[in-house]
Amino acid sequence: MGVKMSLSRIQFSPEKNYTKKNTMILLFVQLRPKQWVKNLLVFAALIFSIKISNLEMLYNSVIAFTLFCLVSSCVYILNDFLDREADSNHPIKKKRPMASGALNPYLALILGFLLLCLSLTFSYYLNIHFFLVLAVYFITNLLYSLRLKHIVIIDVMSIAAGFVLRAVAGGLAINVPFTPWFLICILLLSLFLAISKRRQELFLYVGNKEASRKVLRSYSTEFLDQLNSIVTTATIISYSLFTFTSNHTIYLMWTIPFVIYGIFRYLYLIHIEEKGEMPDKMLFEDKHILITVCLYAVSVISILYYFD
Predict the structure, then answer these.
(1) Which residues fall within 8 angstroms of residue 282, CB to CB, at 6 or more apart?
(2) Distance CA 30, CA 27 (A)
(3) How far is residue 180's CA from residue 178's CA, in Å, rounded to a whole number?
(4) Buried b vs exposed e over 265-284: b needs ≥16 C-beta within 10 Å?
(5) Alpha helices, DSSP H, located in 31-179
(6) How far is 277 from 45, CA to CA, in rounded Å?
(7) What are the CB-based long-range contacts (under 8 Å, 24+) for 283-288?
(8) CA-based torsion, 123, 128, 130, 134: positive or negative
(9) What is the Cα–Cα distance from 208 to 90, expressed in whole angstroms?
């Protein structure tokens, strides 16, 4: 409770003179640890290889997850550094350390540079192919922060590419290949989340030119709904085909209902509850989605362990 109140005061009082301890807290907040949940996708390769997994594979997966967390935090630092003026006009993003003026942006930039160098160096010694994917991930996100996020359609495809790279990197870290159908499922599902995020942003901020993304002016609700219809259908079909063609037990098809319900529940939250701007936040706030994800994970592990 005390830490939570301290963070709240830091974010809402940029004019205060902060101590070294508060600066460290601000730097940690700037890393956006809540966003690290996205990098759990790195463990997908380990989960689908549960029958042949060992402690070394678990260790490499944990290292890969940690490195992706650090590099993604570098991206968040750079993105917040470039957008700090625009974010100061955003109703939610204005509370971020740099946008609020609470954190020296150049100090955060130095931290990001050091973390990037450390992460890439460590990844090189872990696995050269993993290093290359991690480097491509950073470059892709760098281009996204500088230019791609302003280009209609390319913006959401860039976000989806980041999730595919996470899945590929997780497989490379433990030397386990992924089937093409699974990567297609990851691509389509991440497109679904990115499009849903844009739709909610359009709904909330399109009337405020200063608070909204420039790319939102190129979208419409009808267009995004049409894209989501296509991606939703393709995701369910692709995952269904994956369960039959993944070279694993056919009993994986028992997990299809979880995927269908999870997508339908998310659509409900978007269209009825008018949520969806922060997918990572919805995962923990909506009990239905959280329980569905947990049941899906337990089901996949159990099926592959006992029936594969």
Answers:
(1) 266, 269, 275, 276, 289
(2) 5
(3) 6
(4) bbbebbeeeebbbebeebbe
(5) 44-47, 55-82, 84-87, 97-100, 105-126, 128-146, 154-173
(6) 28
(7) 283/37
(8) positive
(9) 9
Long-range pairs of 16-25 with CB within 8 A, sequence gap ≥ 24: 16/102, 18/102, 23/103, 23/107
The number of residues in the chain equals 308
Q: pLDDT (tens digit, 9 = 90+) per residue, 157-202?
A: 999 999 999 999 999 999 988 788 889 999 999 999 999 988 888 8
Tell me which of 121 and 213 has the higher pLDDT: 121
Tokens describing residue 127? 């696995």
Structure tokens at 37: 């949940």
Rounded (10°) CA dihedral 292, 294, 295, 296: 80
Residues 52-65 pLDDT 10s: 888 999 999 999 99
* Residue 203 CB burial class (10 angstroms; 0-12, 13-18, ≥19): middle
Number of helices (H), then strands (E), belonging to the chain: the values are 14, 0
Angstrom distance (rounded) from CA 173 to CA 168: 9
Residue whose pair of structure tokens reads 């030119």 in the numeric block? 209
Nearest to 213 by CA among 306, 86, 305, 128: 86
Helix, strand, or coil (residue 19): coil
- Token digits of residue 151: 């280009």
The CA-based angle 253-283-275, given to 5 degrees, is 110
> What is the per-residue burial (b if ≥16 Cβ within 10 Å, else e) of 208-222?
eeebbbebbeebeee
